[in-house]
Amino acid sequence: MRSTPLTLTIVLTIGILSVSTAAILIRLATNVSGASGVGFSLVIAASRLSIAALFLVPTWRSFQPASPNAIKFAIGAGVSLAVHFATWISSLSYTSIAASTTLVTTNPLWVALLSWFWFREKPTRATFLGIGIAMLGGILIGFDNASQDGANPLLGNGLAIVGAWAASLYLLLGREAQRQGLTVGSYVTVAYTTAAITLFPLPFLFSSSYVGYPILTYVYIALMAIFPQLIGHTSFNWAMRYLPPTIVTLIILLEPVGSTIFAIAFFQEIPGSQILVGALVLLIGVAIAILGNSAKVS
Q1: What is the number of domains present in the chain?
Q2: What torsion, rounded to 10 degrees, do the Cα atoms 105, 83, 41, 134 define?
Q3: Which of 57-66, 134-143, 253-262 has the lowest mean pLDDT?
Q4: In whole numbers, what is the pLDDT of the chain averaged over residues?
C-alpha cells in the first residue's frame, strides 16, 4: 500500500474509529454478561489478547530471531501491555467512558518523563508546561465524582492512570526491542503472546470463569480483538513507517473524543461540564508536551 496523503488519512481515520470502539465493546460485553468487577475485566482483557495472539500464530513461521536483550525487552513490553489492559478495562467498571479513555491516553506525558529518567532525554520547557496543564486537567476529571457514572469514580480514574503508566512502559520497551533487532512483526507477535499468557490465569484468582456467558459476550470480545486490537493498533504501526511518531501520537489523542461520542450514542452517557473542561485541558496539555518534545528533536 502506497503512503499517499489520502491513504494515510483513510488508514488513520479507520484506526481512530477502531480503537474508539474498545470502551464501548467492553461496556456492552459487561452489560450483556451480567458480570462485573475485576474478575470479569480480566476475562475480557485475557480473551481479547488471546484471540489477537491466535491471529498472529502464522507469523511465527517467519519469525526473525534477534539478540537475547531484544527478546527480553519484547517480553517486558508484553507484561506491561497485560497490566495496561487489566487496569484500564477494570477502570470502565468504576468510572465513565469519557474519564477513563481521556486519562488512559495520557501516555505521551509519561513517555516523556520516563525517557528523561531512563534515557536522559530531558524534556523541553514546553514539554514541562504541557505536563503541568495536563495534570490540571487530570485533577479536574479525577475529582468530579458528582457527575461521573460508575460505582467508584476515584478508583476507576486511578486504574486508568495506572493503565497509562503501563502503556508508556510498553511503548518504551517496544522501542528498545525493535532498536535491538526485532522487526515490527516479530516484536508484536512476542508482545501480544506474552500479554495473553500473562493475563490468562489471572481471572481464576478472582473466581471468574471463561465460560457460561451469553453468546453475545463472546461476540463483543471477538470484535475487540479484531477492531481495536488488530485493525486499530496495526493502522498506527503502519502509519509510524511514514509519519513522525509525534504526529501519530497526537492523532491517537482523538480516541477519547471518538469514545465519548460513541458513549453518547450507545448509552446516552453525557459527560458533565467539569469532565468536558478537564478533558479539553488535559488534551491541550498533552499536545503541548508532545509538540515541545518534537521541537527539541527537530
Answers
A1: 1
A2: -20
A3: 134-143
A4: 84
CB 41 within 8 A of CB 150: no
Task: Give the domain range for residue 100.
Answer: 5-297
Written as nine digits, the cell of 210 is 471463561
Answer whether 0.90 is exceeded by the pTM: no
Transcribe the chain into DSSP letters.
----HHHHHHHHHHHHHHHHTHHHHHHHHHHHHT--HHHHHHHHHHHHHHHHHHHTGGGGGG-----HHHHHHHHHHHHHHHHHHHHHHHHTTTS-HHHHHHHHTTHHHHHHHHHHHHH--PPPHHHHHHHHHHHHHHHHHHT--TT--SS-HHHHHHHHHHHHHHHHHHHHHHHHHHHTT--HHHHHHHHHHHHHHHHTTHHHHTT--SSSS-HHHHHHHHHHIIIIIIIIIHHHHHHTTTS-HHHHHHHHTTHHHHHHHHHHHHH--PPPHHHHHHHHHHHHHHHHHHHHHHHHH-
* Alpha carbon distance 128, 111 (integer Å): 13
Radius of gyration of the chain (CA): 18
Reported as a single tens digit per residue, the pLDDT across 205-232 is 999 999 999 999 999 999 999 999 889 9
- For residue 119 the three cell numbers come to 534515557
